[in-house]
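Morning F.,

Quick status update on the modeling queue. The single chain you submitted on Monday has been processed. Sequence for confirmation:
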Amino acid sequence: MFHTRPGLPDSSARTQVAALSMAGLAIAYSLLSVFYFYEDFFKYLGGNSLMTTERTGWHVLVDAWAADGYYHYLWTILSPWRIVGAALAVALLGVSAVSLWHSRPRARTLSLITLWGVLFPQVLWYTEFLVDWHQGQGLAEAVMLAFAVCALPTWLLARPGRPLADWNCAHPSRLLGFAIVCGWIGFAATEFMDHSYQLESWTAYIGALAAVVLAALATRGIYGLRSWGLLCGIGSAVALAVIPLSVSWTSYVPSGGYIDGFQSATTATDVHIALSMLIPATVLWILSAPFMHAFCRKLRTTR
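Structure tokens below.
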């Protein structure tokens, strides 16, 4: 399915600068992650803080008050998936920096997948943080800054007149897009698990967990130019589709955050649910079309 051509390592000064920028990002993002987890969760620990543990992670009671004859509670939640995601982003940024510095094969590809498929999706954590704790102040600036941070190394890695990816195979841009979309699918699945207390469906939770595993396998397989990576990617989209489908029989509990608006936009009607289920798989199928056609032709010729 993948027809490759031998490639040469890239040891240009521009690539060396890109390596330094990735190393700087690894250090900066590790510090930002420590700040984020402290401000969003750890500073509320201690004293008489009430903490509980559920499938979404660790919950700490921040405040409670009486209004309208009811008690209202404000909780902050630390999801283990966010710790894993932040650690993965820092590790991949570091590996990418070392690989670029030593001109290792596919270092550019690894860097681009890391930037746009692992690091950039995590900007949603910080938009949620700004909405929850700062009334949305600085929201647009945070998104633009995250885009600029990812765009600068991408510009340094871009070769004029050539695709950004360096697999040296047919349709490398499609493969790059496929791997990045799989990264987003895995991230979306972890976001659901972070907020699964709002949609208490074990079917949806298992679907999300399967989507995370399959998306990770798909990205690894595509990076290594393995045909099974395409199948895992399509499988991750199918597993993710279980989440909007489960809304049909499970009630949703609003939290007051902007995720409520996303839920309403994607599952308000049966048409919205169907589109939410089909769009990820359709995008992956379009990106993988040439390879899937080659795979089908190979199956027909081997009969």
